[in-house]
Amino acid sequence: MPGHHQRSFIRTPNWITLVLCWNFVILFGIWLQPHTVFIRHFSLVIGAILGSWVIARNWSLLIQKKSLPLWLIVFLLLWVSIHLYFIGEDKGTQLLEYQRIWKKIALSIPFGAGLGISILGWYRSDYKTEKYWRIIYIGFLAPIIVYFVKYISSYICLIMGFETPIYLMLSSAHLTDPWGVSRAAYVFFCLPAYFIAMSELGEVCGKKTWQLNQNWMYLIAIIGTPLIMLMEHDRTGLFYCAVGIIAGILSIIKVANFQFNNKKQLILLLILLIFLASIVVISVQNPLWRALKADAIFAVQINEYDQWKHLSGSKSPPLINELGMQVHESNYDRIAWAIRGFDLILKKPLGYGLMTLSFGRLNSVDFPGSQTNMSHNGWMDFCLGYGIPGFLLIFIAILLVLINAKGAVLPWAKFIKWVLGFMLLVFFNKELSSEIFINALIFTTCIFSTACLDCKTQNS
Question: Of 1-10, 254-263, 358-367, which has the strongest mean pLDDT?
């Protein structure tokens, strides 16, 4: 990093950096779990207090070009406040959402920024950097571990004849089961660790010996994540698992320089290829994939067919595609809602005012009696909620962090590229415009935005 662009700052004490890192592990590990509000609030408050202290000591770091992503997030909070008082169309509901959701997001900003600055200060200490890196990775790994702890515990209870405690039960029926977790949550929170593990395969294979004590974290992610996606029957999750396998293969090829003399590299490459082929076969056999084109013929005609105006199970009469099958609601809804969502964005460029339900509210205005809520596209729902300005503020902030990551020190550059890059993409094809996902996205963006800053470290 060029010296004339660097700004001196006081290094955060090791114990505070450790507290912030382990606080991240707790927060990211339980974020998708129901009835953990107290733990989340406690973690956010502690993180915000310590993070604010770190920022106050190093405020001059935030006066540089690379700090723009963090300022865009701050401006997003300002825009949401302006939207509440001057633009929103349902002030009562919007105020409740503002008080319930955006105060947590506000707390996560100094927490994330402070954590990023704390990590930044130890770049020149290989031991410290490695330790913090592993702790943060454990945080990304935590949702996978929690899933299998619940699965194994409930299985043991079943074998031993005990009644499984309700907090250990696995359920995807989040709309009807108060202890259920949506499949989208598993995709969003489990895949970042998987992508990092896959990107590390080349370096792991390049070593002469396999050290289990250093690589067990990668094994959990590489094996556990696809299993979760298979068990939850999530098409999007399986698709991203296939993308991760391709990334792992490319990583191995890059390290091997197309010469697979190492038996370990060749065996792992063959395993990944078999795994990739298995995911492709499973996906192709899925009737939803096979009928996608036939279902899309009806979905694109939103003015001729109005079944998209109603939620699953309430569409009448059923549509029959060219294959002689009833149109699959999942395919039909995704396409039709995307087209309708674009129409609404052009009609309401400043947004309706709600993070989650703006799509359904706007539809009910134009079509009284319609039964929709989200568009199945996180970015579209967020844009419908807070308008094109709100969408651009957060989207550009993420893009700038990804650009700044090119100048970050390894291994953090790899962290930023895979984690934040995945989060940006998955918002396009999952219903993620709700509290925990937006909060986690902004929180992660804040961490990585300050971890990319130019600095010159001083001892505390």
Answer: 358-367
